[in-house]
Structures are given as C-alpha cells and as structure tokens.
Amino acid sequence: MSNKDSALFRRRKNGYFKRIQGTPEPVSVSVMRRISFSEADVMGIAWHGRFPVFFEEASAELGRKCGLSYKDFYETNLRAPIIQFHVDYYRSLLLDEKFAVTASLIWNDGARLNTEYSVIKNDGAISATGYTIQMFTDGSTGEALIASPELLERCRRRWKAGELI
After folding, report:
1. Over the stretch 52-102, which tens digit does the pLDDT of each residue have?
2. CA 72-129-138 angle, 5° bins
3. What is the mean pLDDT of residues 95-122?
4. Mean pLDDT of all residues in the chain?
5. What are the angstrom distances between the C-alpha of 91 and each of 27, 42, 120?
6. CA neighbours within 13 Å on the CB side: how many for 55?
7. Are 105 and 62 in contact (CB under 8 A)?
8. Residue 10 and residue 12: Cα distance in Å, rounded?
9. Which domains occur in the chain, in start order?
10. Where are the alpha helices (DSSP H) in the chain?
11. Which strands form 82-89's sheet, in the order they lie side by side?
C-alpha cells in the first residue's frame, strides 16, 4: 500500500469527526447513482461541482430514515443550514459510471448535525469523501438554537434504542 493509499484508508476508516466513546455507531444510508451526460464535462469526467448534489441526495435519504427530513424541519418550524462543507477528491467519476454515495450521521451532543460522506466507484475505489456540519435555527427568526430541538432529541432516542441501525 502506497503512502497516498494509506492516507486515503486512514481518513476513510477514522472519519472526519471524533467518535465519542459510549455513543451509538453512525447511522448510514447509501444511494446508487450513475453519471449522466449533464453531470460530465467535455472530457467525460463528472464535474467537481456535482459532488455537493451527490452528497445532498444521500443526506436527504438519511434524513428520511432518521426523522430529520426537510418536511420534518418545516413541520416543526426548524431549519438546519449548512455552516461547513468539505470535500476531498481522489479519483474521477466517468460518464455513465455507476457509484454509491453514503451519508453517515455521526453522534454528537450539540444542537447540530455532523454528517460524513463517501463516494465509492463501482470497482470499490474511493472517488471522494467529505463532510457537512449543520446548525439548527428557528424557522421564523433565523436565530441559532443552543439547546437541541425536540426533533433531534427524538432522533437520538430512536438511535440509542437501536431503531436506526
């Protein structure tokens, strides 16, 4: 294994967020995709600006699984804007290539969502990894919430009970 591959494996294995001992394992969802004509550049390579969209598709599925969907946010007058977004690119995705995007919600005790992403090519190679941090805000005022909203606490109770794994 080369130094570069070793660094890739270490980042993927350990993740971006520190795991808190005694907390539940991450909740994950994977979405299968294929690079369409509109997502590729003239060289037949997936444009780097599409990766946030790939992350978002997996994140939306994860939210549905956890009871943290956009619909849930609106119904409880909450918003969860992204305050940090990061992506590391490793290997290109090519036109018509199949790949999987995985979003994993990582446990934390704050009023925020820490989500890690991986884009895995059909041959098992890592195409990209990344993360987002979302903070909860009041849907009417836009004020940041210091305490975790009931919607997140409900998710955590289900998570601890093993309902989300």
Report:
1. 999 999 999 999 999 999 999 999 999 999 999 999 999 999 999 999 999
2. 25
3. 97
4. 93
5. 25, 17, 9
6. 25
7. yes
8. 5
9. 3-160 (3.10.129.10)
10. 3-14, 51-66, 70-75, 150-160
11. 27-34, 98-106, 112-121, 126-135, 82-89
